[in-house]
Amino acid sequence: MSIQKSPYQGFADLLNAGGHPVSPAELHGLLLGRSCAGADFDAEGWLADAALSLDTEPADNVRNALVGLQQMVQGELTGDDVTIVILLPADDAPLTERATALGQWCQGFLTGFGLHSGGKNLSQEAQEILQDMDAISQVQEALEESEDAESDYMEVMEYLRVAPMLLFTECAKPVAATKPSLH
Known about the structure:
By secondary structure, the protein is an all-alpha fold. The protein has helices at about 5-15, 25-35, 45-55, 60-80, 95-115, 125-135, 145-170. Pfam families: UPF0149 (PF03695).
């Protein structure tokens, strides 16, 4: 009987096999942060930013996975949905592992956003989201497994599935061209 790996674990195994000391969560956060700040969806630009975290030149299989991840994120950000799927360990992983990955995701997001935000003036709400992400990125591994801790984790995760959309809408989403009206 074969055990099905989660997408997170499959990507983690791919990165580890390539000698890349970065978590899938951090890379996904980096990608989403840069995209929400206004970086275009050019694969080479994304691969250049990802290379900063990978430490070594990625093999073709890692490059292909990174490009696939970018295509998924582009679809989420430009589609009609209002939530993001965050690349994290499966729900049956220990809470400390999931919370650590959530903190790494936030660190990656802040790095990617910082690389591409270019000193934009952000709304108060956008600034608060970035401050929240900074606080979440400081999460400690000493979480106790409990129903309250699990509930708190789920609330934070749900918040982070929606918050990037506000940043993307404010900083990166192209404004729809309006037709001039004839008077």
